[in-house]
Amino acid sequence: MPNSTYPSPTPHLDGPAAPRHRPPVGAWLAGGVVAAALGLGVFAVAVLLLWISTPYPGDGPGGALHIAADLWLAAHGADLVRDRTLAGGTAPMEITPLLFSALPAWLLYRAGRHALEDGGLYGDVEDEDPSEGPYGGPYGGPYGGPYGGPYEGEAPAEADPVHALGWLVAGYLLVAGVAVAYTANGPLRVDILSAAVCLPLFTAAVAACAGRFAPGRSAFPAPRTLRRLLAAERVPASLRRAVTSPHLPGVLRAARAAVVLLLAGGALLTLLALMCHAGAVWRAFPQLTGAVAGNAAVLLLTVALLPNAVVWATSYGLGPGFALGTGSAVGPLATDYPQLPHFPLLAALPAEGTGATPLTWALGALPAAAGLTMGWRVARTAAPVRGRRDLARSRRHTLAAAGLAACACGAVMALLAGFSGGALGNGDLARFGPSWWQTGAAALGWTALVGAPAALLVRAWRLRGGAAPVAPPPPAGAGAVAAVPASGGLSVTAVTAGEREDAEWYSTASRRTRWAALKAASGGLMPDFEPVGTGKDTGSRAGTGTGEDAEAVDGHEPDPHAQGPHAQDPYEPLPDTPPPPGDGPRPGPYDRT
């Protein structure tokens, strides 16, 4: 029995149907492998160069490669464990040189961008209808048949950024797993549990940044699981509105500005400390080693730890400070630490017992400036146009945005503080660096207490002299329309200009004009009859105005809002209504050319 409802596929005009384009899964997987191998290779080359130039070769090239793999894993946040200590046990090494982390992060970010570019996945994927093909076929055919179905032998490619980045992360973790197995034994080995947690988190975070912040993408689609959770009824409406709010990017930009300013202040403090103690920093190199290769290794490690020093100095400026061992504290109000080994960065520490000084109190300007910057950015988001109160957000929403930005700033600073510190051994060396929760709480407190009032003040300043625009009075005779409420009484509401245009569009005269245009364009297919209620026997031409479709009397238009069982609602569109008169009448589906 022939299928008359669904026509058979139509052959393509240019020949056979195009083959199916499969997602380049192999290329994505290979991209992750190459990114991990490049990072591991850079560390191996640097360590081998130092091993070749040192007069103490140690365990040979195998030991050098082992150290290179250890450093590469430590750059991802994995903890190292040192055997053969003086006490005869093991000692953890948990401090991650942040500059070492920049290299694998950059390589993985670049690999993520190339994976999205090769797969053709750049663009506003959430703004497109996934059920439409590139040429409008509602069933996704590559060229779209006349009814939207794919041609024979064709199938759409099923790929999205999440899948592409997932295969990329899988390839990267494959090489990381081999490195973990290679460094599981030895005098300096990786902690397997720490590597199993930190490596997937690091790679997933960088891959997500590659999909979200890469050029050419205005949005990164959230995973389907997250979208379903947000759409669930048990999710609070306030949380759903906060996550899907169009003002959320502006709030995050304000938090980013505060974090950048805090870190810039920490970098300035680090630079000033190194300049003030330049002599002690220079003398620390020969006290550690006299060989050229040894000095190069110390210099490389010092440069790699500079970002850590910046984060520590930022915590110092916020107030909590940092620790240099169990029971020690280095802060703006008090400094107390034990005897430390010679190292260039440790030589730049402030002297012990230093109390509050005018310079110390001046450090409060750093978090205050960050809070003011955050408040200014939040106010610009809350009041985007000067003097336009109708476009501005309320004070309550402005305070909520400032609080959300402060929370984001505190979370980022807590993450950086926790990632930059750790243990260098047991006992007194079990705590080095700032406390993550104290640093995050201090950043949250400073930005909230300073940023929220600043946001309100800047918002008021941007809206000074402005007033909410008042709608112009309607013209005489058309300023109000009578609507019939459910109770049967009359309620008068003002009609705006757009509503008046809609009323004219749905008026009887306008409908008849469109009907005549459609009839003329049909080529005789439409029957020649008058709408119901226009006959001479209806009494409408007598001027009663009570017919189903009363016509004009003495040149006046009938009232489309007249009461009665057949009164026409001017705001209710008719089915299949042509476009407004400005666009002209559209021809029917069976027009004759």
Q: Report Rg.
A: 36 Å
Q: Encode the helix/strand succession as letters.
A: HHEEHHEHHHHHHHEEEHHHEHEEHH
Summed up, the helix count is: 17
For the residues shown, what is the average pLDDT? 76
How does this structure look, described?
The protein is mostly helical. Helix content is 49%, strand content 4%. The protein has a three-stranded antiparallel beta sheet with strand order 2-1-3. The chain has a two-stranded antiparallel ribbon with strand order 4-7. Helix 8 packs across helix 11 and helix 11 packs across helix 14. The relative contact order is 0.08.
Features of the shown structure:
593 residues; mainly alpha; three-stranded antiparallel beta sheet; two-stranded antiparallel sheet; 17 helices; 9 strands; 49% helix; disordered N terminus; disordered C terminus
Task: Briefly say what this structure is.
With 593 residues, the chain is mainly alpha-helical. Helix content is 49%, strand content 4%.
Give the arrangement of secondary structure elements:
Blueprint (H helix, E strand, L loop, with lengths): L24 H29 L7 H14 L5 E3 L8 E3 L4 H21 L42 H22 L5 E3 L1 H22 L10 H8 L5 H7 L4 H29 L1 H11 L3 H13 L1 H13 L4 E2 L4 E2 L4 E2 L21 H5 L2 H18 L12 H26 L11 E2 L2 H27 L17 E4 L7 E4 L2 H9 L2 H14 L72
Antiparallel strand pairs: 1-2, 1-3, 4-7, 5-6, 8-9
